[in-house]
Amino acid sequence: MGDILKDYVGGFIFTASIWVAIFFIVRPPQRGRKLVRGICIGMLVLLASPVLLLGLAFGGIRGLIGAIIELLIMSGVGVFIPACLVASRIGNHFGAIFDGGNEPPEAHPFYYIAKLKRSERRYDEAIARVEEQLKRFPSDCEGQMLLAEIQATDLHDLPAAQSLVEDLAHQKHRQPGEIALAFQRLAEWHLQIGRDKSSARAALMKIIELLPNSEPALLADGKLSHLGE
C-alpha cells in the first residue's frame, strides 16, 4: 500500500506541475477555450475507458490506481498540450471570421476633433487638425474634401477649395467616383457660394474630361444642360 501511495503522490505532483506549466505557457485564447475543453474531454474519455478497465482487470486496485496515474500524466503530456495547440489554431481560424483574428486593426484617420473645432467656428484649429491626419494618411479622400469644404463653405475661399480638389483629382490611384464627387461638390460651391455659373460649368466639364464615356460624365453632361437653361 505504501508503494501505491508513493506512486500516486509522485504522479500527482508531476501531473500538477505539468498542468501549471500548461496554464501559463500554452493557455488557449478566449475564442478557442471552449473548443479546447471539448477536445480534451473527448480524448480523455476515449482513452480512459479501456485503460482503466485493463488496469482493473490485470492489476486489481493497484492496477487501477496505476492506470489513473498514467492517464493523468499522459493527459498532460500527450493529450492536453497537442489539443491546446490544435484547438487554438482551429479557434483562431474560426474566430478570425468574426473578429478579424490576431491581426492588428487597420489604422484610419480621425477627424472627430477637427469637426468639433469646425462646429465651434474655430476654423484655423480645424484645418490644423485635418492637416495633422493628412500627414499620416496623405491620400485620404475624406480629409482632403473636408479641408476643401472648410475653405469653401466656412472661409469662402473658393480658389483654395478649387486648388485642393484639382490636386486630389490628379493623385495616383484615385477612384473615378472620388474624382466625380470632388468636382460635383466644387460645382455646387461655385453655384451656392460664389453664384458663379461659369466656374460651376468648368468644374462639371472636368468630370467629362477626366472620366470620358463614364456614368459620372453622363450625369455631369446632364447638369451642364440644366445650367444652360
Describe this structure in words.
The structure is a single chain. The chain is mainly alpha-helical. The protein folds into 2 domains: 2-99, no CATH class; 112-227, Serine Threonine Protein Phosphatase 5, Tetratricopeptide repeat (Alpha Horseshoe). 80% of the residues lie in helices and 0% in strands. It has 9 helices and no strands. The protein has helices spanning 2-25, 33-99, 112-119, 123-136, 141-154, 158-169, 176-192, 197-210, 215-227. The protein starts with a helix and ends with a helix.
What's the CATH architecture of the largest domain?
A: Alpha Horseshoe
Low-confidence stretches: 4-9
User: How would a textbook summarize the main sheet?
Assistant: none
> How many structural domains does the protein architecture include?
2
Percentage of residues in helical conformation: over 70%
* Oligomeric state as shown: single chain
Distance between the termini: 108 Å
Number of strands: 0
**In percent, how much strand structure appears in the residues?**
under 5%
Mean pLDDT: 75
Number of helices: 9
* CATH class designation of the largest domain: Mainly Alpha
| Spatial extent as radius of gyration | 35 Å
